[in-house]
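Re: the request from the purification team.
They wanted to know what the chain is likely to look like in 3D before they choose a buffer screen. I agreed to run a prediction and write the result into the notebook, where they can find it.
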Amino acid sequence: MNHVLVTGGAGFIGANFIHYLLQAEPDAHVINLDALTYAGSLENLKDVADNPRYTFVQGDICDTEFAGELLKKYQVDTIVHFAAESHVDRSILGPRQFIETNIIGTFSLLEAARKFWLQEKSLSLENLRFHHVSTDEVFGSLAPGEPAWTEETSYAPNSPYAASKASSDHLVRSYGHTYGLPFTITNCSNNYGPYQFPEKLIPLIILNALDGKPLPVYGDGQQIRDWLHVEDHCEAIHLVLKKGSTGSTYNIGGENQPANLTIVETICEILDEISADPSYKPHKNLIEFVKDRPGHDRRYDMDTHKISSELGWRPHHTLTEGLLATVNWYLSHPEWVTAIRQKQEYKGWLDANYKSR
């Protein structure tokens, strides 16, 4: 792992992974390829911008020729593919971008890697890895009492986002089977933590609560998710890169399944305890139930036995500890919040998604 290309490295999980990798791999050179769309921000990487082992390149993963030139220029031996459109609500309002980025973009990267790694044979095959970061949403939805998803669970995506990620997973597997491209895939549950763009539930609730704005909860709020702290996710991916079996898939989850309403109420309780501003206490009074989104999956649950037994990984963060740390991070980084909120697209999205509910 000498020259690592991280796609989507200016986004939430990608930026956290770059921070993690620069610490965990002191000899690695990390190349961050990001198009800097609405959710990507170099604010997420200000503290590593001058690191000689870090290089930022702005570009589109759908450009196969450009990606191939990048692999050659930096002699990339490891690709960690985060770049994706990832918000279900956005995929419902506008699915085309999800098809282009998540399917065509993954295809383009695979083609670039196939040409450079397998046709030109510029690097030793045993030291190469294409790691694809996917989601638990490819598995569909669980009814109460159904067992958690394993790596063998059949795919049953229910949203355009989930369908596009399922398609990209199948593409990666096909390149491994057909061409011998060395790959691994991880399917993760809902991430939370520092640098998350505030369209997602946890940062949206934190920032709205701090401003005394309504805290929108879809439907009855009883949708169940498995919540994974992003630092635990980064550690798991690194472990798969180092010790995971080529051609394997691993589930990564936080080993907890609270209802969305419980998450919102817990954040409110944390803010009641630590916020110096009494204006909006108790914060749970700001909760507002809104019209549910179409086809909202009811329950997710990840079986993490494989990664635990094969690689010895378990999440370090409990949900309570992780939420407290996340709230404190947003409270202590007002400059980051201000920079993100200045993006015109951010306000436009909130208006488009919530005003009509």
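For the purification team: The chain has a mean pLDDT of 94.
Please add any questions underneath this entry.
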